[in-house]
Amino acid sequence: MSGQKRFAxxxxxxxxxxxxxxxQAEEITSYLxxxxxxxxxxxxxxxxxxxxxxxxxxxxxxxxxxxxxxxxAGNICAPCNIxxxxxxxxxxxxxAEIRNEEWREVFPRLLEGDFWIEHRMMLRAEHWREDRLLxxxxxxxxxxxxxxxxxxxxxxxxxVDGRYLTTYxxxxxxxxxxxxxxxxxLAAGGPILPPELRNILLxxxxxxxxxxxxxxxxxGSAVTxxxxxxxxxxxxxxxxxxxxxxxxxxxxTFAAEHSVQFLRFQDPGYFYRNLTPHMSQNPSAxxxx
Length: 289
Fold this sequence. Notes:
By secondary structure, this protein is an alpha+beta fold.
């Protein structure tokens, strides 16, 4: 909405494997510079971006790519409290705000401050082995604990707020944010949650004689998933990894300290209006007529 702050330092970042995104990032940077904005461009894989973004007083991160690019942008920007404007150069664009051909039409509104900021919860995931913390991540979509190469399911003891919930015998268990409810959790049969919710969604993948319904936990809940297996198990935060786990390892996940901020030009009801086109025209299935 009008009256928002004007951005003085903008970083435009492209997916490194999308030539069109790289070219367009350069065009956007040139456009912004002509408007008197301190703008620079780079690639998502540039090490300097992650290391220097907070130090250079960047106040807007423009990301060109698909949903994977938006996830990586969220991971980079959330700790520094920097909003993200997503320009979709991929297939789905669930997280991006505008299509690649729209930026010239929309950017005058950006310069006028005619937008609003949407806050989305992230999860913090911690990998524990006995009393040792092996790793931790902040994710926007989900944390997945699953079987590895073996087709045998894993046993996943699941606790909510320290209380035993159930033991899943399944290919995987997904602990998802509301944002992730339209990603892997949706493919596994989970419900679609409004993106502003701060709940954790649990969805089992191919459960065998286990709870086969998704569970939406109360806001503020924490989940601990302990692996019991005689074969390989892995975990994946937001599609990264896989990270190997052994029997007895546990993943503890809860709402992260940071939130991802997406810059929006559409009205707050955009999510439901855009949902039907995404659901009925899956570009990966080829029926995007």
